[in-house]
């Protein structure tokens, strides 16, 4: 009889389940399903328009996907439910959801199905930027100690700004909600019928700390008097560390999942952070880049430092025994996807089809033939704002150097390079703050699909890059934590380091800097850094003026 763990990775666009051999890390079967409603950015399901910068999801999609992908993955793996010892869940964050006391999402109720504030606010929802700015300004004025752990700024992508937005713009939703929960925590509660909050998610996305808890009542009251009790009223519930056992699969859930009742279920994790162990046993100084629609950078360290523009430094946030710093770029795969969807000419699309390639494959092949610096282009990768190190969702993208002779593949490569320059900005911020980056790893879709992009990153960073063996980093990481939730006594592991050593690993390939290209990128990065500060830090930047004009025009 084998021993297997399952992981289910709830990403931005889809959910993916994976069955893994606990002893070897061998991936035996998987299934994926796209969310039926996708990302609600322009309209609600009823057709009602959404404001600019909004991004919502329908929580019913999570359950619909769960009901399909878990049984399909089990069937593909040929594994008996009795052999599955643990289940782990990861999800995007902060994806916040207002629910009733029994866990029912407000958008499930007829009276709230047309209210956008009743849906899950996805991680990339930027409608709370004004609230985030106020929170930052007040924390700076009050010299709140928590602010240094978050790089000196509060992001509109986090839980508390979103809740403050709901309170101020839709108080009826705020009052009706018994709690606001992270989507990952909610999914776990639907499986176990037990409620618990992930301490890791709360640490990164809700300004929670094991020593101090949530921000003080005084600070919250100064933002809005009604907000003073948000922690006790809307964020109540036990906080459990990563890998803890929330409970067993409830008999009702077991019936529709095809799992055995009582199977151990781990605390929810963030879809990026859960990937850290997939390269092997975690070590201080390791930077993992989780490269997908966006890129999240997780750096393990032993000591806490104030690093400007980081998204949080949380004890045990990725692996027990380490402080895990989070940084990120809000738009990487999405940036290349935007270019293909909106800017690719008919001729390129025709040629790609004739050659039997996707548009991305076609452009990448052509971009690979270009030398570094050949196109005369440079870009700022802020199509979805800047997460690190400027923490400003109002910033926008820029391409400099285009002429009538500029070709699509040149722009495509310049966008790749811009994301690499953004990562270098993050790495330099860490090292300038005294947090060493000793080795760089990558995982996620881009890491496996686009060798050119990894080579550009190696050249820009001037560092070797190794890639995790798995193509399903989130789901594998979740399966590892599921095995830890089961524990050694049930056939799993007692620590994530043990699970990672047995179940993780790296590809043989190593991306090493090309000296010639690295020298050219050194010059281009200097230009990027100048543009970064000119357009990103200057209060009178034309970017900010353009956004103000846009807001006025839209009324």
TrEMBL record:
The record's listing under HAMAP family reads: Ribulokinase (MF_00520)
Protein name from the UniProt record: Ribulokinase
**What does the record give as EC number?**
2.7.1.16
Q: What class of enzyme is it?
A: transferase
**Which reaction does this chain catalyze?**
L-ribulose + ATP = L-ribulose 5-phosphate + ADP + H(+); D-ribulose + ATP = D-ribulose 5-phosphate + ADP + H(+)
Q: Which GO terms describe its cellular component?
A: cytoplasm
**In which pathway does this enzyme or protein participate?**
Carbohydrate degradation; L-arabinose degradation via L-ribulose; D-xylulose 5-phosphate from L-arabinose (bacterial route): step 2/3
From the UniProt record, report the name of the gene that encodes this protein: araB
For this protein's source organism, the top of the classification is: Bacteria, Bacillati, Bacillota, Clostridia, Candidatus Ornithocaccomicrobium
Organism, by scientific name, is Candidatus Ornithocaccomicrobium faecavium
